[in-house]
């Protein structure tokens, strides 16, 4: 059993829980309950930073395109983007699919939650700045552009489900050897491991904090594996990360939510 933090809907403060089972059982206020029976918000409060092309397969998939203009070579530093607060979504909450969009990419990502102000962090000390880890689905509309900001494809409302909790870092141990899986309607559609990261969690933190400060509560997504699976309206999506947990959401037409749709 491990310590974790969750955020219940309607409450400002986080709640500390004991994770009895990473697949969904917790002890909350001394009582055992299933995570599916709780209404949860995203358990993070700071800025969420995504990282592009940090899986070996994702970079290899670009092939010779990585050597073409405008950059003419593989990235020499982390390629970052932001998932703003409007994208945050909770465990079990619907993911809105915009009108006219047939499918969405499900971007399974390990979320590294920063525990204290981090500036010019050394690689060997990087994990000391980590509070814990969470499961993130970095949802996006399918697109081909890598070098230009894909704002409208990645920052739609609800396009960043996070949860169900932030589990204590000591419960995870080595974050660079975690299996990552995506299930759609119960069928395994993607499987990878953080062992395939180009930059380890520690290296990523160190390189980023060379030029910017990460604050307590910020979340750093280590990257999305290549060949992100597609899901459409009505699909139930589950992202699992070893020793961290599972995140479940259902795709729902955006107009249904605007008309008063409820939790799935």
From TrEMBL:
Gene3D superfamilies: Fumarylacetoacetase-like, C-terminal domain. Signal peptide: none annotated. Pfam families: FAA_hydrolase. Transmembrane segments: none annotated. Keywords: Isomerase, Metal-binding. GO terms for molecular function: 5-carboxymethyl-2-hydroxymuconate delta-isomerase activity; 5-oxopent-3-ene-1,2,5-tricarboxylate decarboxylase activity; metal ion binding. It comes from the Bacteria. The keyword Oxidoreductase does not apply. Residues 47-252 form the Fumarylacetoacetase-like C-terminal domain. InterPro entries: Fumarylacetoacetase-like_C (IPR011234), Fumarylacetoacetase_C_sf (IPR036663), HPA_isomer/decarb_N (IPR012686). SUPFAM superfamilies: FAH. This is 4-hydroxyphenylacetate isomerase. It comes from Neobacillus mesonae.
